[in-house]
Design a protein that fits this description.
It contains 15 helices and 16 strands. It has helices at 20-40, 53-60, 65-70, 90-99, 143-160, 175-191, 198-206, 220-224, 235-250, 295-298, 313-323, 342-357, 375-385, 395-399, 422-434, and strands at 43-44, 50-52, 73-75, 82-85, 108-117, 129-138, 165-171, 255-257, 269-277, 285-291, 306-312, 335-339, 362-364, 389-393, 402-407, 414-418.
Length: 435
C-alpha cells in the first residue's frame, strides 16, 4: 500500500506572511515611525490582541459595520467570556489608559503599532489581518493638538517621499448638533428612500450619518444634496474648526473641506480627517482620525478630551513602492566567514563571535547538509550576502595562525592577517571602504 501524501498547509485567506525580502521595508518604515514619535514626545503603548468584546461594542459603536459584520468574536471555552480580536487600536488604548489611571498626572501622548483583525473580503489594500500604526493624544482639548497630529502625518508622508497624498477634513460638531443634523438627514433620506440601497435603508434607522460615507456610485447624487452637518454647527464648534484650518495654513498644509467625511466609528466629534490618494484604486484612504472627546467617559473613565489617527502599514508600504521611495536592499551582513570544517570551523566560530561582539554583522558559513563545501561554493554565498569582505580560514591559513581577508565589493584584493589581529584589520578595512 502506498503512503498517503500529506497535504500542504496554507495560510488563512486574507492573513499574509511577511517574507524576508519584504521585512526590510517594514523595518525601514518602523524605524522612521519610531524616530517620528520620539521627535514629538509620543510614548509607545502595547495592548493585547484579544480584548473583551464589550471594549469594541462600547468604544466603536454597536451599529457600526465593524461591530455588526467584521469582528472576529468568540466565547472563551473555559469561562464563557465574550472575546474579540482587536479590529482597531483606539478603543483598546483608551481601555488601558482608564484601567491603569494613566491620566492621573496630566495629559498623555501615546502611540502604538500592531496587527488588527476584520472579517472583510480580501482585496488589494484590504486584508483580514492588517497592521496599524496610530497616535493618541489624551487630555488636550484645543485645536493645537488636532493640528499637531496632522502635522506629524504630513511630516511622515514627506519623509517617505509619498506622492499623490492629500488631506481632507471636516467637523462633526458636538452631540446636540449631530442630533439636529440626524433628524434632518432622516427626513431627507426618508423622502428619497427609493434611491437608497438596502444597506443604506438599514442605516437610515440606526446610523443615518453613515449613509454619507456610502461608496455606491448610484447614490452619490442624492447624497450630494443631503443636509450638511457644517450647516448645523454652533459657534464653539465653528470656532474650533476655523482655528484648525488657520493653524494648518500656518504650517503650509493644504487641505480640502469634505462635508461628507464622517469616518466609520461612532466615537468621533469635532475635527475628523483623512489622507487619501488615487494611487491605490478603491482603497484610497491610507490614514485617518480625528477628535473623540466622548470616548473616555463612554468607556467608564473620567471625562477627558482626546484625538488621534491611525494608518494602514500595508497600504503605506504599497504606496511607497508606487512612489519609488522603497529603500534599496541592504546587505545581510558586513563579513562572511569561510572555512573547511574541523579545526578551521572552530577558529572561524571564535572569530565570528569576536566580530559580532564588536558590533560587526557577521555570517558564518554553515553547510545545509552538514558536509563541508568547497571555497568556490562558499564564495558564491558570500557574494550573494552583500558582505563587504570575506574572511577565509582554511587549513593552510590555520597552520600559520592567519586568516585571509578578501574585498568583495572593490577590486577583489586579498591579504593575510594574523588571527590575533583579525578584528583590528576588519575594522580598518570597513572604515577604509566607507571613506
Amino acid at each position: 500500500m502506498s503512503e498517503q501524501k500529506i497535504q500542504k498547509l496554507a495560510g488563512v485567506r486574507g492573513m499574509n506572511d511577511v517574507l524576508p525580502t519584504d521585512a526590510k521595508q517594514w523595518l525601514y518604515l518602523e524605524k522612521i515611525l519610531h524616530d517620528l514619535t520620539r521627535a514629538y514626545g509620543y510614548e509607545f503603548i502595547k495592548t493585547p490582541i484579544v480584548e473583551a468584546t464589550e471594549v469594541f461594542q462600547r468604544g466603536i459603536g454597536v451599529v457600526t459595520d465593524i461591530v455588526e459584520k467584521e469582528m472576529y468574536s468568540f466565547e472563551d471555552r473555559l469561562n464563557g467570556e465574550q472575546l474579540t480580536l482587536r479590529p482597531e487600536g483606539t478603543a483598546a488604548v483608551v481601555r488601558a489608559v482608564i484601567e491603569h489611571n494613566l491620566l492621573y498626572d496630566g495629559p498623555k501622548r501615546l502611540c502604538y503599532m500592531g496587527p488588527m483583525f476584520r472579517h472583510e473580503r480580501p482585496q488589494r489594500g484590504r486584508y483580514r489581518q492588517f497592521h496599524q500604526f496610530g497616535v493618541e493624544a489624551l487630555g488636550f482639548s484645543g485645536p493645537d493638538i488636532d493640528v499637531e497630529i496632522i502635522v506629524m502625518g504630513q511630516r511622515l508622508w514627506d519623509e517617505l517621499g509619498l506622492r499623490g497624498v492629500h488631506l481632507e477634513i471636516n467637523s462633526l460638531g458636538q452631540a446636540v448638533e449631530r442630533a439636529a443634523h440626524r433628524e434632518a438627514l432622516v427626513s431627507y433620506f426618508t423622502a428619497n428612500a427609493a434611491a437608497l440601497d438596502e444597506d443604506s435603508q438599514r442605516r437610515l434607522l440606526t446610523n443615518p450619518l453613515r449613509i454619507l460615507d456610502s461608496k455606491n456610485s448610484a447614490m452619490q447624487e442624492v447624497i450630494e444634496k443631503a443636509p450638511r452637518l457644517l450647516d448645523f454647527l454652533g459657534a464653539e464648534s465653528l470656532q474650533h474648526f476655523t482655528a484648525v484650518q488657520a493653524l494648518l495654513k500656518t504650517h503650509n498644509i493644504p487641505c480640502k473641506i469634505n462635508p461628507r467625511l464622517v469616518r466609520g466609528l461612532d466615537y468621533y466629534n469635532l475635527t475628523v480627517f483623512e489622507w487619501v490618494t488615487t494611487e491605490l484604486g478603491a482603497q484610497g484612504t491610507i490614514a485617518g482620525g480625528g477628535r473623540y472627546d466622548p470616548l473616555v467617559e463612554r468607556m467608564g473613565g473620567k471625562a477627558a478630551p482626546a484625538c488621534g489617527w491611525a494608518m494602514g502599514i500595508e497600504r503605506v508600504l504599497e504606496l511607497m513602492a508606487i512612489s519609488g521611495s522603497v529603500p534599496e536592499a541592504e546587505s545581510v551582513c558586513d563579513i562572511y566567514i569561510l572555512h573547511q570544517g574541523g579545526e578551521t570551523l572552530t577558529a572561524a566560530f571564535i572569530a565570528a563571535e569576536q566580530l559580532r561582539s564588536a558590533g560587526i554583522d557577521t555570517i558564518l558559513f554553515c553547510a545545509p547538509d552538514g558536509q563541508t563545501a568547497s571555497f568556490k561554493s562558499q564564495m558564491k554565498k558570500a557574494d550573494a550576502s552583500g558582505a563587504a569582505f570575506a574572511v577565509i580560514i582554511g587549513p593552510d591559513e590555520l597552520a600559520l595562525n592567519e586568516a585571509q581577508i578578501k574585498d568583495l565589493r572593490g577590486q577583489g584584493e586579498q591579504h593575510a592577517v594574523p588571527l590575533t589581529k583579525l578584528l583590528d584589520a576588519i575594522i580598518d578595512s570597513l572604515v577604509s571602504a566607507s571613506e
